[in-house]
Amino acid sequence: MKIRYAVLIVALLLGVEHISAQRGHNRHKLADTVNVVKAYMDSLRLCRQRLDSAAARAGAGADHSDDGRFYRLFVPLTFYHSAADKALGADSCGSADDPMADAVDDALLRVYLGRPDLVRNTETALRQAGTLRNDILGEPMKQDLDLVERVETVPDVDALAPAVVMVKKPNFWTFGGDSYVQLLQNYVSDNWYKGGESNYSMVGNLTLTANYNNKSRVKFENKLEMKLGFQTSRDDTLHKFKTNNDLLRYTGKLGLQAKNNWYYTIQLLAYTQFTKGLKSNDKKVYSDFMSPFNLNVGLGMDYAVSTKNKRLTGSVNLSALAFNFLFVGRKNLGGDYGVVGDHHTKEDFGSQVTVDLTWTITDQIKWKSRFYAYTTYERLQMEWENTITLNISKYISTNIFLYPRFDDGGNYDENLGYWQFKEYCSLGFSYDF
Predict the structure, then answer these.
(1) Between the N and C ends of the chain, which has fewer C-beta atoms within 10 Å?
(2) Closest CA to 295 of 258, 263, 325
(3) What is d(CA 64, CA 18) in angstroms, rounded to the nearest whole number?
């Protein structure tokens, strides 16, 4: 009997423990379900906040110019009854469905109270004035749309038509130049206290360029310069006019690119003059066509100068080995140019440097500079030509020309030594192409 009671008690204890364990498991399961639902609601709430913020940002940048509710803020200030009625409680409900209209009324009320002097009209006066047009108050116009048969599209170009392929050969040549014809007049009366003489002078210049550049490695540059100027002088009884500028010069360069702006280059320089060179009241001819004629061939390196803004362009040529050929057609002038004996020619070897730059200082001011030096290491010939152009208009310009020159192979002057100098200033017509 006692054993039965003991077994019954043990069974009851095991049943109670199982029930309590199952209840605990159900409580844990319920807690997990609550956490999942809470996390899901939090996710929905976060998503809603993101959508609201995105809508707010989109609304901030939207254009409300077509919203008629804002017109009262931008027309001449008018006293509207709705703003006052809401403030006095006559319209306590307000526009429950239109908070934007309430905000506009609040803004107008603040203006009414703060700056009543800005009010130009009233709502009563507007109602009495009526509308501008009465014929537009009827029913809005409606459009009747009829269905039509679908029209098949027709291609503009026959898809089966053969395509014509055209291959256009690139043109690597560029041509250009500039020219000017300018005058200079100087008048001095016979009794001028410092003396002097009146004169007229004219100078014309034409420069032509033809350049080849295949944008790869080869370039071929050609430049032909022609300049001729005359002057008259009343004190010169032997010549009605004589030249004061006379130049015929060709410069050619053939280059093969070495690296970046550096080229292996052979340069050909040939120059002479058009006509006789004379001096006042002197019958002697100091120079003439092909008297002298200089031909210089140099082998070296050439550097292409070009800034980013293209204001400064040009080239620097360095020829370590150069051959110079001199020809004087008039034998009586040979000694003046270093020709020895009864000969017309003179040859020598040396080195030469040529710098040719154009600097566009402004749209109206341009400076062209050419520096040339040739030396046999026994004598030196150096010249520096500078032309400063001031553009007054498209076709009118002023030129200032400065030309110092050094040649220790010529005659020595007691005042200037081996230095020579030429300068002029002129005004006239100019044209670039």
Answers:
(1) N
(2) 325
(3) 70
CA 356 to chain centre: 24
Q: What are phi and psi of 389, to 5 degrees?
A: -110, 125
Answer for the pair 208, 223: CB distance below 8 angstroms, yes or no. yes
Least confident of 29-43, 72-86, 249-263, 401-415: 29-43
Q: pLDDT grade, residue 258 (50/70/90)?
A: very high
Measured CA to CA, the distance from residue 263 to residue 59 in angstroms comes to 63
Separation between Cα atoms, residue 352 and residue 380, nearest integer Å: 10
Which two structure tokens, joined as six digits, stand for 200?
């007229």
CA angle 341, 345, 349 (to 5 degrees): 110
Backbone phi, then psi, for 342, in 5-degree steps? -90, 60
Q: Note the pTM of the prediction, 2 decimals.
A: 0.60
The answer for residues whose C-beta is within 8 angstroms of residue 370's C-beta and 6 or more apart is 354, 355, 356, 357, 383, 384, 385
- Between the alpha carbon of residue 85 and those of residues 96, 118, 122, 337, the distances in Å are 15, 20, 14, 111
Signed CA dihedral, 414, 416, 418, 423: sign only: negative
The mean-pLDDT minimum among 114-123, 180-189, 366-375, 401-410 falls in: 180-189
Name the pLDDT band for 98 (thresholds 50, 70, 90). Answer: confident
Q: Which residue has the higher pLDDT, 335 or 374?
A: 374
> Would you call the peptide bond into 170 cis, given omega within 30 degrees of 0 as the criterion?
no
Is the pLDDT confidence value at 208 over 60? yes
Q: Is 344 helix (H, G, I), strand (E, B) or coil?
A: coil
Return the amino acid letter for 94: G
Radius of gyration over every alpha carbon of the chain, rounded to an integer in angstroms: 49
The two structure tokens encoding residue 383:
């010249």
Would you say 387 and 399 are in contact if contact means Cβ atoms under 8 Å apart? yes
pLDDT at 21: 47
End-to-end CA, the chain: 135
Does residue 106 contact residue 100 with C-beta atoms inside 8 Å?
A: no
Secondary structure (3-state) at 127: helix
Q: Convert 91-109 to b/e letters by CB count within 10 Å (16 or more is b).
A: eeeebeeeeeeeebbeebb
